[in-house]
Each structure stands twice: as structure tokens, then as C-alpha cells.
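Sanity check

After download, print the first record. It should look like this:
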Amino acid sequence: MIRSVDKSGVVARIRLLPSLIEVIVNSSTAQPALLQTDFPDLELYASGKVRDVYRVDNEHLLFVATDRISAFDYVLGSGIPNKGRVLTQISLFWFEFLKDIVANHVVAAKVDEYPAHVRKYRDQLEGRSMLVTHANMFSVECVARGYLSGSGWKDYKASGSVCGIALPSGLRESDKLPEPIFTPATKASSGHDENISFDHMKKLVGAERAEQLRDLTLEIYRKASDYAAGRGILVADTKFEFGVTGAGVVLADEVLTPDSSRFWPADSYSPGQAQLSYDKQFVRDYLEKIKWDKKPPAPALPDDVVSKTSQKYTEAFRRLTGRELEI
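Expected C-alpha cells:
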């Protein structure tokens, strides 16, 4: 177990296995997978399923995206090479792309621009880290949905609505919605997202702030999904996290990554069923195939699943940004 402090200051326990505290090399990719960071001179502020967050000083945090991968609320016994680099570099791309809509918390992403006492950990930081302003985070995840999938599809089948938003009858799984909808969520103690109504969100953050975050979320989603569609990717849904710094409301954490979004290849889109995606599809399929009971210990992944998943993440980066991943 690793102690984690969430954005509300609540101490939680992240279920990591002892075998994760190491760096492994997968034989099929010949790329190292960073599963646990080790910065003895820095204070560990929080550790989640993927990111390790360190306190740099009173105003700044260091976000480091590892190559850990989770499924069914457990971190698995294998890492996905370069996954953390994909998550970081895609987020940096979107932070820059969206800065005309909302400011963000990024201060620097080049190790040479970090404080001297941080730069000595360069080998674990290159391409997968961000120095950010410490923001006071809102306790609500801001979700935008353009297509009917995941928990939204489950809610729709049960009630004909999603988070209290009534939708037309007769929609199929993966159908495009008449217009994007805002469906906020909170984190339960188990770590699962729990959909809530907009009225519930107002009670949590205040009516004026809730309306501001809703409008920002939908504006960001529309701009990003229009861009992604031109690159052959449909953004079915995505979640954002916002906080407040001296600059006001900022976009924070990760943005429009395969971990925080459903990315579907446009050329294979076929409504009425689940879609191919640029995320953990191969991992989920394998775990279902071996009939894992979703209890510890979490299994390791075979080389071919690791390799295919790593390729999927890297392909998403390349397609969205038009660049090669910095390794």
C-alpha cells in the first residue's frame, strides 16, 4: 500500500503490489517500463494509479506519469512501456492547444528548467513529468460526452437519461448524441467515478462556479473533438479537472489522454455496439479471457498484450499531434 492524499486532503490507500516497486524490461519491446519513481530528496505528496506527485516547494508540485496500468480498480503486475510519456506529452499538447480558452497549471516540462535539486532525477523525468503550480482543486470531475458509451450507456438503458439529462428514445450504444452533454462525477471511496446530477454539483461547488466549469468543459470538448475528428479520432467522452490558482480557474492534471478519454478510430466507427479504442482494450480483453476474479493479486500481462497496448498509446499520440513521441 502507498499513502495517497487526494485533492480534498483525504488520505487514501492505493492498492499496489510489492512487485511494482521496480523497473521492468519487457522482452517484446526492449523498452523499460517505469513502475515506481524514487526521489529520496523530494517529499511524496500523493501517489495514484499512474502518477506520483512530489512537493517541490510551497507553490509547486512535480507530476510524474509512470508506466503503471490499472484495470477494474487494481494496478496490474506489468507496466506499459512509454505509457507515462504518452500521457504527459499528449496533455502538454492539449494544454497548449486550449490555452486560448482556459489557463493551465503547467510551469515547465523540460528538465533543464526545473529547480536544481530536481534535475538530478533526470533519468526518471525526461518526457514524462511536469512542474506545475499547486492548485486548489475542485472536488468534481467535469465530464463531456458526445457519444453514448460506458456508464452513460448503462444509465440510458436503465432510465432513458444520463445524469438527469433526458435523451431521445431509441438510441443505440455508441450513437452520437444530438449535442454534447455535461455529466459531472465524483470519486467514491473505492476509487470509482460516480455520476451525479448538475444540481448535485451546484451544492458541492456553488451554482455560479458549476455553471462556469460546465461551460468551460463543453467549449473545450467541442474544440478538441473537432480537431481530433480531423485527425481520424472520435472523442466519445472525456473528463477534465479544474482548480484555482492566483491566475484564477485553471485546467489541471491530465487532458484528453487515452486514460481520461474514449478515443475511437473514425474509420472503424459502427454504432450499435462497443467500439475499438486507443486505450486499455487489449488489457481488458485479456483479463476477461483469463477470467480473473478481479481480486488481488492482480495478474501480470503477457508480452504480446503489453506490446500491443504500448503501440496503441503511441499511435494515439502520433495521430493526434502529428509528431513522434519524445523518448
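If your output differs, re-run the checksum step. Summary of this record's structure: Residues 1-30 have pLDDT under 50 and may be disordered.
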